[in-house]
Write a structure and sequence with these properties.
It contains 27 helices and 12 strands. The chain has 729 residues and is α/β, with parallel strands linked by helices. It has an 8-stranded mixed beta sheet with strand order 5-12-11-6-10-7-9-8, sandwiched between helices.
Length: 729
């Protein structure tokens, strides 16, 4: 039995698989690798030598601050954030490689007319040289030579220039740095001049607008009579007047309210009075606390008391009583008149207060109108004043900025400094032979290994047990190693190799196949076996002979029957005549004893195919052939039929239905999977019993077929001790 670990297929996960692939296709790998390395070396040696010169510069975020901080420049570089600084420096690197900088260098050095720089110095024809130089773009050519390399975490930058002339490379590197500094200054000057021109135009406009605003403000002051008294003073006076009038009006209104309340009280008392007027009038407000009224009341009371006393002593007509009553009436009349005067005075006072309230209200409304008018003028004045102030402020701002630019424009300071000037180098920077060879070796090795893998995966031939079991899904009976050329000089010697070398590894592999066949049917061993292949030249005849010899060596009487009636070869292998054979027996033109030939190997007999018939398939499908096969199986222990390939003709499929089983021979590295699948399909299509397959002509030294073949091939040779096999394998 074959150990599981010995079954080797195409497992892309197994590292040994790749090693075997690379070793098997080592000449492809070495060829591709060598071609890539040699081609790269040849190409590198033919390239012109390029020299690199480097100048280092320091780019500050801002130029030195010579003027006061209040004087600002047009280009405000500043420090800013990280992203601002990053973008700024990236911009500067692009400026160094810009066409403007290159144009300055070309114009300064006259490189447009330099044939050496333009690559036209080797052109001998003056006309062609002039035409070539005219078409060449010196600026673009120089731009392609400039490389900028920033130093990490610094403000330092390296300006590289590559050229075929080391001195010219150093000159160009230094000139590029100088041109970059000059371009920065030129940009500053241009922007300053442009900004100055714009500011001057804007200043003239703002001056006219400011003057116009001042005149409009003066005209408003004159119209509003604000030249002698300001609006603030007028607002203050109007406010004071409103306050005074409001206070007086409030006071008068309180007085009117009090007088109206008094008059209402008087009317209420008078309406409710039932006695004489002197009695109700005494209860009026303002009467009880009047001293004169009090005197009149005392007088009336005294006179009334005196009359009462006299009335008690005298009669009604008594003169004293009449005189007393006359005096009482006089006192009461005086009291009534005084009370009437008080009432009249209250009415007059109320009318006076009401009139005063009306006048004060008119004055207050007039003052309010004056206040509204002043406020309106104040709003208009503020608008005009604000416009005038804004115009003046803009004018002052533009004027200051203009003066700043006039001062800063005179400065010629730059934020770029040259740290180290470029110097000519002795060794070229390109081409780097060792680097190119190393890269070519790596890339060539990758390409070679990739090609080897592609070829391996594109190889669709059958070569191992795994291919048989995975692709064909039929039993694998064994393999037959290839026979070295030195051991079999003729076809006959190759066919009879295991007879001549019974202890060889090839013979042992054939015996292993014989054993596997016998163990497939231990209770009822086969009597007839058909050996076929998927295509020609796959070793089916040799396999038939080897299997027959192996059967004989196990004590069987074997007949090899040549049923390949198209290209028969058994008679050639054993050196027997082919005049009488299968074809003559089928058509009953010869006896069986005449067709069977003995060989030099005991118990091994051969029946050649005989003369080639025009219709082999029909001949093999006759009852006569079936009867012949049955008769032969009765006389011999094993009858092994050699047939044509399945892929070419239908003979093998016809024979497969008449035998106990079929053995399919595949040639390692030659039989494709598709051919093998078609052959298996042909046998299954006629319900032939397929015992399994044998892989023939295996090169056990080829890593493609894995450790399995190599292990068993070595094992067999070591066991039998065949020195020649050991040397060959």
């Amino acid at each position: 039995m074959i150990p599981e670990q010995a079954v080797v297929g195409r497992n892309p996960v197994d590292p040994k698989f790749y090693l075997r692939v690379f070793w098997r296709r080592r000449w492809v790998v070495l060829g591709v690798l060598g071609a890539v390395v040699v081609g790269t070396a040849f190409y590198t040696l033919r390239q012109p030598k390029i020299y690199r010169s480097t100048a280092s510069i320091i780019i500050d975020a801002a130029p030195p601050k010579v003027l006061d901080k209040q004087v600002e420049e047009v280009i405000e570089q500043g420090t800013g954030s990280y992203w601002y600084s990053k973008e700024y420096y990236q911009t500067q690197y692009k400026v160094i490689q810009s066409r403007a900088v290159a144009q300055r260098v070309v114009d300064k050095l006259g490189m447009q007319s330099d044939p050496a720089f333009l690559g036209a110095e080797k052109v001998e024809d003056e006309g062609k040289r002039a035409e070539l130089m005219q078409k060449a773009d010196a600026v673009a050519r120089l731009q392609g030579k400039i490389k900028v390399e920033p130093a990490k975490d610094t403000r330092l930058a390296y300006v590289h220039v590559e050229d075929t002339d080391p001195n010219r490379a150093a000159l160009l590197a230094n000139e590029v740095t100088e041109a970059y500094i000059a371009e920065n200054l030129s940009l500053k000057v241009r922007m300053t001049a442009s900004a100055t021109q714009w500011l001057e135009e804007r200043l003239s406009t703002l001056e006219g607008q400011s003057n116009k605003s001042e005149l409009e403000l003066h005209a408003f002051k004159k119209q509003a009579d604000m030249l002698t008294t300001s609006l603030e003073d007028r607002q203050s006076m109007v406010s004071q007047r409103l306050t005074a009038l409001n206070a007086a009006l409030t006071e008068v209104r309180l007085k009117v309210a009090a007088l109206k309340a008094r008059m209402e009280a008087m009317r209420s008392v008078q309406a409710a009075a039932t006695e004489e007027p002197s009695r109700w009038a005494e209860a009026l407000p303002g009467v009880t606390d009047n001293k004169l009224i009090e005197q009149f009341k005392v007088r009336v009371a005294v006179q009334r008391t005196e009359c009462t006393e006299l009335s008690e002593r005298y009669l009604e007509d008594h003169p004293k009583l009449s005189a007393c009553r006359e005096k009482l009436r006089g006192a009461e009349g005086d009291l009534s008149r005084e009370i009437g005067n008080i009432i009249t005075a209250s009415k007059a006072e109320l009318e006076e207060a009401t009139a005063k309230e009306k006048n004060l209200l008119a004055l207050f409304e007039g003052a309010k109108a004056d206040a509204f008018e002043v406020n309106k003028k104040q709003i208009e004045f503020d608008q005009l004043k604000r416009t005038a102030d804004n115009q003046q402020r803009l004018y002052d701002l533009v004027l200051k900025r203009l003066k700043d630019l006039e001062v800063s424009g005179l400065l010629r300071t730059s934020n770029v400094r040259v740290l180290d000037s470029a110097r000519p180098t002795a060794s070229p920077a390109k081409p780097r032979f060792s680097t190119n060879i190393a890269i070519a070796f790596v890339l060539g090795l990758i390409a070679a290994l990739g090609l080897a893998l592609v070829l391996e995966f594109m190889d669709n031939t059958i070569g191992s047990q795994a291919d048989v079991e995975e692709q064909l899904r039929i039993p694998f009976l064994g393999f037959v190693p290839n026979i070295p050329e030195g051991k079999a000089k003729t076809i006959s010697e190759r066919d009879l190799h295991i007879h001549m070398h019974p202890k060889s590894s090839v013979a042992e592999c054939c015996r292993s196949i014989r054993t596997n066949l016998l163990f497939m049917m231990p209770d009822k061993p086969f009597r007839s076996l058909l050996v076929t292949s998927s295509g020609p030249q796959e070793g089916k005849t040799t396999s038939t002979i080897n299997l027959g010899i192996s059967m004989v060596q196990s004590g069987n009487k074997v007949l090899l029957l040549d049923t390949d009636m198209r290209r028969p070869r058994l008679h050639k292998a054993f050196g027997v005549p082919n005049e009488v054979g299968v074809s003559t027996l089928v058509i009953d033109q010869a006896r069986l004893s005449e067709a069977i030939k003995s060989t030099e190997i005991p118990d091994l007999f051969v029946m050649p195919c005989g003369p080639l018939p025009p219709n082999p398939a029909e001949l093999l499908h006759t009852e006569a052939f079936g009867h012949l096969l049955k008769q032969l199986c009765e006389q011999y222990d094993r009858v092994i039929l050699d047939s044509p390939p399945l892929g070419a003709v239908a003979d093998a499929a016809v024979l497969g239905t008449q035998v106990d089983g079929v053995l399919l021979v595949l040639k390692a590295g030659a039989t494709t999977r598709e051919m093998a699948r078609r052959a298996v399909g042909s046998l299954r299509g006629v319900n032939a019993r397929l015992f399994g397959t044998v892989i023939n002509n295996v090169n056990v030294g080829d890593p493609k077929y894995g450790d399995y073949y190599y292990y068993y091939y070595r094992q067999y040779g070591s066991y039998y001790g065949d020195p020649q096999d050991k040397a060959v394998s």
